[in-house]
Specification:
alpha+beta; ten-stranded mixed beta sheet; 38% helix
């Protein structure tokens, strides 16, 4: 029995028919690719990239090549330093002009030889596409407030790579590492900015200047903005700027001696049964304003066996200290900061699911470019899962989506001069739903 879907999904294949399973392929990437083409990503790449290659030798556009890399990241090819044309690549040969071979053969050669400082262009593309993704989710979910989580983590590096230096590495001290910094939106699980830094660069370097670029763009979306960060981003000038721009913030403070002494005499003590902690508060004064300084003492802890212990804190010992300009109760502010931990999950998925620091190229610029590509792939995964696969607010990781939606068994064949895509009936029923959603997706 043949099912014709020419109007829904061309030119990739003409007919789908029931057949026996012969080859396992990632056939679920076809609707993902169609979804990406409906987004402005290809247009943004063409606008931002200046192609420095010899125009007479070009057979592939930069946007086509980058989109193929991003699809490979979504599909699970997390070690892109061996990305070669038509190597175990039957799916991509059907999508990207089968039979034409570009004059470059590997991703590393493309980034090193053809486009100088590609990571600069990709960073702009990542920012523009992140804003567009956020706009889609705000309209889809009718969001009134968004929360920006900023965090950085170290990734140990063992090879001889540029930029791998000794810095803050809590997992393996004195080991050379990279620093991966992420700006994410809590409500939509999407990314606004991803940056790979040298191991010795502090997370707050360039933070203030990035905020001055990001905040005005986000305010154009017409939503309230909150920012949550850990103690590495503590800066009174940033506090004053966020207050001036009308942005709420919750930033942890380093527990210096001066801060501990201030908490010792803080008043407004109250207990929180929800979080099993004691909260104290005082006024924090800067050169331009006054903010709230909240001290948290957690009273109950559990060991590995689940045994409950009640700790007796001295008056100058605190679990967390926050600075904020928000008018919420102190326990709600503590709850908002506890949710900041989800950015660690996003960073872990970037490293494990997309391989953002798994390149063996020794050029630091190339590794920065790969990180931007991983960020773009993550945003495509998030928006596709939210608006096409219709997952709830808890969007699963990329490994789950690959198993359930992307790695669907099937194979290509030629039948009577037509390209036939063979797929089993249960998968076809799921595919038909996805096709309709992709075709109805509007580029707003």
């Amino acid at each position: 029995m043949l099912k014709t879907i020419t109007k829904k999904f061309k030119p990739f294949f003409v007919e789908i028919k029931k057949s026996r399973l012969r080859i396992i392929k990632s056939s679920g990437l076809l609707p993902v690719y169609n979804f990406v083409l409906k987004s402005p990503l290809k247009t943004i790449i063409d606008e931002e990239f200046f192609d420095q290659r010899n125009q007479k030798l070009i057979t592939y556009l930069v946007s086509e090549f980058i989109l193929s890399i991003i699809l490979k990241l979504v599909d699970g090819s997390i070690r892109l330093y061996h990305f070669r044309h038509k190597v175990n690549d039957e799916m991509f040969s059907h999508i990207f002009k089968a039979g034409t071979v570009p004059h470059f053969t590997t991703l590393i050669y493309f980034l090193k030889r053809n486009i100088e400082h590609a990571h600069v262009y990709l960073e702009k593309i990542m920012f523009r596409y992140g804003i567009w993704t956020l706009k889609q989710e705000i309209q889809n979910r009718s969001l009134k407030t968004i929360t920006i989580d900023v965090d950085a983590t170290a990734a140990s590096i063992y090879g001889k790579q540029e930029g791998a230096e000794k810095g803050y590495n809590p997992e393996k001290r004195n080991n050379r590492c990279y620093q991966l910094q992420v700006w994410s939106v809590r409500e939509t699980k999407s990314l606004l900015k991803v940056e790979l830094r040298k191991g010795s660069v502090h997370c707050s370097q360039g933070y203030f200047s990035d905020l001055k670029i990001l905040i005005p763009e986000l305010q154009k979306l017409g939503v309230k903005i909150r920012l949550v960060a850990d103690s590495g981003y503590e800066n009174y000038k940033v506090f004053d700027y966020l207050e001036e721009m009308g942005v709420g913030f919750i930033v942890a403070q380093k527990q210096r001696k001066k801060v501990k002494n201030a908490g010792k005499w803080a008043k407004n003590r109250r207990n929180s049964l929800k979080y099993d902690c004691t909260l104290k508060e005082r006024v924090l004064e800067t050169q331009k304003g006054k903010y709230r300084q909240i001290f948290v003492q957690v009273d109950k802890v559990y060991d590995e066996d689940g045994q409950l212990y009640i700790l007796n804190f001295s008056s100058d010992e605190f679990t967390n200290v926050f600075a904020t300009n928000m008018a919420l109760t102190s326990d709600k502010i503590y709850g908002l900061y506890r949710e900041h931990a989800q950015v660690e999950t996003i960073i872990g998925e970037l490293k494990s699911g997309f391989g953002s620091v798994k390149s063996h190229c020794h050029k630091f610029d190339v590794n920065q470019s790969l990180t931007q590509l991983c960020g773009l792939a993550y945003n495509i995964k998030t928006l596709y899962a939210s608006q096409i696969l219709k997952y709830d607010e808890r969007i699963p990781d990329i490994a789950t989506i690959r198993d359930e939606e992307l790695h669907i068994p099937g194979y290509f064949a030629n039948h009577s001069g037509k390209k036939i895509f063979n797929i089993v009936v249960p998968s076809f029923k799921r595919f038909s739903i996805i096709f309709n959603r992709v075709n109805n997706f509007q580029n707003i």
